[in-house]
Design a protein that fits this description.
Blueprint: H1 2-12, E1 16-26, E2 29-39, E3 46-56, E4 66-71, E5 79-88
Parallel strand pairs: 3-5
Antiparallel strand pairs: 1-2, 1-4, 2-3, 4-5
């Protein structure tokens, strides 16, 4: 019985990120921009980093939508995320 619990915990430990749709020109794929900010370990200045990831999109997101993406198995050479929900639609 503990094996089932461990398997469930492993599946729920997938990474979740929030980002903005940057491009939707591909079929069922969007490019999501993920921004993060952290303190520099030595100087204390806030450093901003931006990453673009490709995500599988069944929800037909538009450019500018804020979405939540979840890590998944490799769906193609560069696509390892999928859109789980649209948090905010662009007007």
């Amino acid at each position: 019985m503990s094996e089932v619990v461990n398997d469930t915990e492993a599946r729920n430990s997938r990474k979740l990120r929030r980002g903005v749709v940057y491009s939707n020109k591909m079929d069922k794929t969007v490019v999501v921009t993920i921004d993060r900010a952290f303190q520099h370990p030595l100087y204390g200045k806030t450093v901003r980093r931006t990453k673009h990831v490709k995500a599988h999109d069944e929800l037909n997101c538009d450019i500018g939508d804020t979405v939540e993406i979840m890590e998944t198995r490799p769906l193609s050479k560069t696509k390892h995320w999928r859109v789980t929900r649209i948090i905010e639609k662009v007007k």
